[in-house]
Hints:
The chain is of the alpha/beta class. It has 3 domains: 53-142; 156-248, no CATH class; 251-487, 3-Layer(aba) Sandwich (Rossmann fold).
Amino acid sequence: MEHEPLELTLQRLKQERDEADRRYNEALTALDRAIPRAPQPPPTPPAYDDHQVTPLNEGCDVLVPPPARSGVKGRLAAFVWRLMAPTLEKQNAFNSRLVDHVNRNVPFHRQTTQAIDGLAGAARDRADDLLELRARLIAYLQQITAYVDTRDRDTGGRILVVNAALNAMADDLAKRWESLAVREQQFEGRTETRVGAIAAAQEEQRMLLGISQQAVLTVKREMERLIAGGLPAPAAAAAEGGSSASPPSAGPAARATAFAPALDAYKYVGFENEFRGSRDVIRERMESYLPYFDGASDVLDVGCGRGEFLELLRDRGVPARGIDLNHEMVELCRARGLDVRAGDAMSYLDAQPDASLGGLFAAQVVEHLQPAYLLRLLELAHHKLRPGAPIVLETLNPACWVAFFESYIRDITHAWPLHPETLRYLVLASGFKTARIEYRSPVPPRDRLRTLAPADAAPDLVEAFNANVEKLNSRMFTFMDYAIVGANA
């Protein structure tokens, strides 16, 4: 089976990264342009006009009888008053009711004007708050790419150095191979003995090539072991954020120091029961991984936790064992008759013979590991697995906002979010021949952003809004987990 050359792999990964960056920038630009401007509230209405209320109250009473007089004028005035009094009484009653109505509505109109003024101010403040939140969201999204890039530059530099050394060795071996091919052509037509000698020399060179490659890996492993034993290693220590006195192998393993003390171990058991899900739920989720291990033996479950996957393998007749730092988890597994040991995964793997494992499984573990520790663990897994043996690494998907903000940051033992393409590249760079991404646990539709119906707004606005919603859903509300499924051959 032919495999893609390293140079083509790196070129393809770069093209995929550039394409992902382009799509990310386009989506960010579209989001920036889609932010609406703050609406302009209507002007505050003028204050209630009540300057005529007092005159109305003072002049509403029109029923004023004429003064008493004697003589003809007095009798005439009394006659006129008797004629006009009923009409004036009705007018006076109407005026009283009208003035009473106006007086009753004066407080209402005043309070209404004050309420409208207060609501307009609150609306302006709310619009300003929303604009500030959207601006901060855009600024946050603009920082994600740069933040992730700074995390993998050191690792990328080291990989380039190792690749350069291996390429130089490969070029030297290729030249030797070409020299042998020329010699073979020169000796064509001679005796069968001479041809047999050339064939033997070619076979010897093939064997030497394999030995040389193995020797390079062995020297690399021994140098790392010496560094771990105390030799100065400034670059390794810098990658860990510490001094040269603390080697990279001193980094934490799965579920590191936060719950490592024996008296605190039970707390993480309770944490998993509370937030990860019941044992039955986890067993159901892990059943889909079983076909990768059919026919295998000596499978190792790294960070086995409560032992759900070990029980599934046992029920399927696959011999397996587990390792976990949390002694409470180990005791739970042993109580169910599972072969589980307490200890550090890297130290345990390092003690195993090469090509002795028939498979390796790790669910929700790699996000607990520091980068240097993870790189070392993957390289050890490559050496300890038999040719063709599977490796399955399940972890949270930090590219999904739901997984990152509701699951990843909830667990204080998480050390490093791993982008799917990053973890796949690390598996391939550690020597595995194949590695593919398998996305799992999609975000439920009820938790995704919803689109508008055609009747909700103008067609152009609905189309633009729904397109932006789909872009956000495809980037932020996708799959909460993923697994890297790889093999040694």
